[in-house]
Amino acid sequence: MAKERKVDFCTQCRKETTYQLRKKIVQKVIKEKTYDFEIVVAVCDECGQEMDIPGLMDINMKSIDEQYRKEEGLVSVEDIQKIMDIYNIGKAPLSIALGFGEITITRYLAGQMPSKEYSDIIKKSLSSPGYMIELLNKNAEKLGKTAHKKAIQAAEKIAGLFCVSDKMLLSISYIFDQMQEITPLALQKILYFIQGVYMVLFDEPLYEEDCMAWVHGPVYEEVYDLFRDFKYNPIEDNRFAIFKERFEELSDQEKKVIDLVINSFGKYSGKVLETITHNESPWKEARTDYEPLQPSREIIDKKDIKKYFSWVADNYGIDTEKKLNNYIQSYM
């Protein structure tokens, strides 16, 4: 079937012509600061001039708004709506809970830009259920019993779901940001490898959770429980917003180790990573008393993980992607 050609009226050619959509960088000055924004323009196939296509200006205005908010670190309209959905709270009650004027959130949803101070409060309430609970209780009397009860129940349920340590949450946030798509199986193995490499390079664990020796390799049970509750693609779940941009709180050395693992182990499927861990002593020794397909409640001791990856460091090196890739290739 032939692809339908885009046609509209070109004011230069004075007739209906076909056109192509192309990306273009435009500069705009906002509050005495110059920004480069990427927009989409329609270019006439006959004269090469830009055409005024219905609806395109609105699309570009929305895109510029989103780019500006991202550049300045301001919360998006979409994320404000997610807060309302996640915490089961309306516009006016949310404004009150956050300590704003009653119609502030209504204005923000209509497109008004929040101040950096208010934006940071909104973003923190989205990323931290505990902080949201604190605000809800602080402003409980102003909210009223019904609105407070509904929101606090939703917030406590979310807080109970996200029962992983901050470092684990930040690490998962960064992994998703860098890899875009990752299966639960691969995520578990990536987290395990990050922990091992980090402990050897910096002589301490990155996250406090213990790793379990499950049938399919090392598993962080808290992470398994968390993503089991996400019934479909985690990124498409509103609650995934709690992970969004949290990784910015990681230190440079923490990001460096995660990058090392993502750019080496992260190139392989979860099943390949499972095979690698099945041949490593921490998992094998933790499952000494178990049949291959028998469930295990055994913890892989952090000392054993560190000891093994110290051996990897001595024999292959772990401080560069090339060295880690050489280790991985030894199992291929």
SSE sequence, one letter per element: EEEEHHHHHHHHHHEEHHHHEHH
Question: Order of strands across the widest beta sheet?
Answer: 1-2-3-4
* Count of helical stretches: 16
Mind telling me the C-alpha Rg?
25 Å
Helix content: 40-55%
The biggest sheet amounts to:
4 strands, antiparallel
Question: Based on DSSP secondary structure assignment, what is the total number of beta strands?
Answer: 7
Mean pLDDT: 89
Q: Total domains, how many?
A: 3
The unreliable regions are: none
Q: Could you give a quick summary of the protein structure above?
A:
This protein is α+β, with helices and mostly antiparallel strands and 332 residues long. It is built from 16 helices and seven strands.
Which key features would you list for this structure?
3-stranded antiparallel sheet, 332 residues, alpha+beta, 3 domains, Ubiquitin-like (UB roll), 16 helices, single chain
Walk me through this protein's architecture.
It is a single chain. This protein is of the alpha+beta class and 332 residues long. It folds into 3 domains: 7-72, Ubiquitin-like (UB roll); 77-161, no CATH class; 166-329, no CATH class. It has 16 helices and 7 strands. The chain has helices at residues 56-72, 77-86, 91-97, 104-109, 116-127, 129-138, 140-143, 145-161, 166-179, 184-202, 221-228, 252-262, 270-278, 281-286, 302-315, 321-329, and strands spanning 7-10, 15-30, 33-44, 50-51, 211-214, 217-219, 299-300. Strands 1-2-3-4 form a 4-stranded antiparallel beta sheet, covered by helices on one side. A 3-stranded antiparallel beta sheet has the order 6-5-7. A hairpin with a 2-residue loop joins strand 2 (15-30) and strand 3 (33-44). Helix 10 (184-202) crosses helix 12, helix 10 crosses helix 13 and helix 10 crosses helix 15 (302-315). The chain starts with 6 loop residues before the first strand and ends with a helix.
